[in-house]
Amino acid sequence: MSFDLPIPTLETERLILRQPQERDLEGLIAFWGSERAQFIGGPLSRLDTWRKLTSMIGQWVIKGYGFYMLEEKSSGAVVGGLGIVDAEGWSEPELGWNLYEAAEGKGYAFEAARKVREHAAATWGITAPISHIDAGNTRSIALAERLGATFERDGDISGHPVRIYRHAEWEVS
Amino acid sequence: MSVALNIPQLETERLILRAPRAADFEPESVFYASDEARFLGGPQEASATWRTLAVMIGHWVLRGYGFWAVEDKASGAYLGRVGLWNPMGWREEEISWALMPYAQGRGFATEAAFAVRRHAYEVLGWQTAISQISVENEPSKALARRMGAQLETTYDVPDFGMMEVWRHLSPAAARKQDAEAAA
Prior knowledge:
The complex is a heterodimer.
Chain A: E1 2-6, E2 10-11, E3 15-18, H1 25-32, H2 46-63, E4 67-72, E5 78-85, E6 94-99, H3 108-124, E7 130-133, H4 138-146, E8 150-157, E9 160-166
Antiparallel strand pairs in A: 2-3, 3-4, 4-5, 5-6, 7-9, 8-9
Helix pairs in contact in A: 1-2
Chain B: E1 2-6, E2 10-11, E3 15-18, H1 25-33, H2 46-63, E4 67-72, E5 78-85, E6 94-99, H3 108-123, E7 130-134, H4 138-146, E8 150-157, E9 161-167, H5 171-182
Antiparallel strand pairs in B: 2-3, 3-4, 4-5, 5-6, 7-9, 8-9
Helix pairs in contact in B: 1-2, 3-5
């Protein structure tokens, strides 16, 4: 079997959203090994982060949609990741995000989320995804609310309790 | 950008080795939920098994080799997987096999393992290979012996326990063994 799954690069005012690649590994290891990953299943070892990267790529192949790396246009630096996460144990596709520390507070996640929601609705028919958020992750809850999501119900991922936020229906123009 | 996936289909007398696909998750999750998976990092939850399937595909993308799904040519049934494995942190390139319990005892793993060894040496140009086998996994050790592999060392692998490292025949010796088998 041989195929090429196209993953179009998306662009916002300040960001490039592109597929994860092997060269993202060290940045991912730094993020996933840190306390910043505490609300999303981390911290992870280097090896588990390698599995995270490969499974992100695998999810693109299996599902046809997935997670992007966010590149800051001005510097070319990767500032985090955002996209649609969907795996066994997920009740439905999720809009997920993580921002590296240096990129905090600039509205990057909001900017990327709007773009991915537009693309997800138009291309994959994912018009009102959920977001799983740890109750202690106040920054992420604030972002979800800024994006117009509302708390829907309590849930869990692999036994870990999470709050499930629902994003408003995206009107495809 | 795009994700390029190039998984050649291999064929043996009774088997097709093909790209893993989403439908393989069903039998794999049943297998990995059972005690039968104890030599292979299991038992584990379905979510972890799904993640492993996704990792296997990502491994192909990053490394250019990985696990094939093993299919019974006659019935099309999914029999398990066999492959060339080298995730980050691995000791070295490995030939690996894991057949579903219902597919064991008929020489399928042997047939598949010889085919992927040939692929590793003749197509990918590997100069050597190991197989890591749980100390208690006698059927797997018997297969390694049939391939001419030799026990090299035993060590403790996180999540897997005590594992034996079996060193496979060199490319030249493997070629000779293949030729003798074909004669």
